[in-house]
Amino acid sequence: MFHSIRVPRRPILVKNILFFAQASMAIRRQGFQVVHAQGASMWGQHVTTAHFCEAAWLARHRDLAEASEGPGRAVYHAINSRVSILLENLIYRRRGTQVVIAVSKATREDLAEHYGLDPARIPVIYDGVDLETFHPNQRPRWRGAIRKQLRIADDACVVLFVGAFERKGLGYVLKALRILQDTPVHLLVLGSGQGSALRQLAQRLGLGDRTTFLGRQADVHRYFAAADLFVLPALYEPFGMAVLEAMASGLPVVTSRTAGVAELITDREDGLLLDDPTDATAIATAVHLLVDSPELREHLGRTAREKVSGYSWDYVVRETLNVYRTVMDGRA
Q1: Is 5 inside a domain boundary?
Q2: What is the CATH number of the domain that holds 113?
């Protein structure tokens, strides 16, 4: 049974506050045995999955966390960030919150450092992936069709980026492509952020005809199927579901060593890890290595698919049900 909570989609701050208030009242009325929330989204839950740690993000990259196009938006983002930290601190440390699940070991460490939680009491359940939707067998259906639609040459090596532009390092990918100006590479960009500024950067770097911005897309699996490799030099990434989707699709991935999903990757065995996601030269080197070696792309893509085969949504359900049983047993 679904209990709908109706709130406006934007602005995000208003949406989050209204959802928090209405959801908290709804669960109080219903008297559920176990309430599982995603993040600090309501008051009264027994289990919370922490997909993000706002305090960690703000501490490491305040300039990006509060960045926006225009001073008014910057103030808005600063307020939104501090409200998020307040709610996370209240909810994660609340006595009634019996279990806080982290989506990675790195997130568990962030929760312990910034909110004083006991890491021994924070189970880690990685995000899951739809292993049928994101599958190498999607390539024959979508590879040619997407490339034809976007007018990408058949011999171009297509690099895919999916995510929030600033936090996940799109600017550094563009600078890396500038270094690879003589390499037949075309970048597909899906996601959101300060698109106008980054489009202008792409033009200034001479990448206008080698970069396609597609915004948000519903059926992202089609673009994974059309790509040759996936790059996400994230500056702060509690997990990185897009990386998991790329691996499930059989793509070789280049991502940050500090990303949560990197805990599942063995460097040069089922992916390439970046020590410094802001190092455009290192990104260019990794991309060039993959572009120059179809055999390595094939090998890393195959082993990546094998690695994530155990991380379906069935795995997430199984591990989450174990948490629910722990909560229920604690009341017996």
Answers
A1: no
A2: 3.40.50.2000
Instruction: Say if residue 83 is in the same domain as residue 164.
Output: no
Widest CA span of the chain, in angstroms? Answer: 67
**Conformational region of residue 172, where left means phi above 0, alpha means psi within -120 to 50, and beta covers everything else:** alpha
pTM: 0.93
The residues, any chain, with a CB within 8 Å of residue 58's CB and separated by 6 or more, are: 65, 66, 81, 85
Residue carrying structure tokens 């229920």: 328
59 within some domain: yes
Decide if 323 is inside a domain. Answer: yes
For 182-225, the pLDDT digits (tens) are: 999 999 999 988 778 899 999 999 999 999 999 999 999 999 99
Is residue 98, in this structure, part of any structural domain at all? Answer: yes
* Same-domain check for residues 205 and 238: yes
CA distances to 71, 73, 74, 238 from 68, in Å: 7, 6, 5, 22
- Tell whether 106 and 170 lie within a shared domain: no
- For 67-100, write each residue's pLDDT tens digit: 545 556 677 778 888 999 999 999 999 988 999 9
Angle between helices 280-292 and 170-179 (to 10 degrees): 60
Question: Which residue range(s) make up the domain with 201?
Answer: 136-308
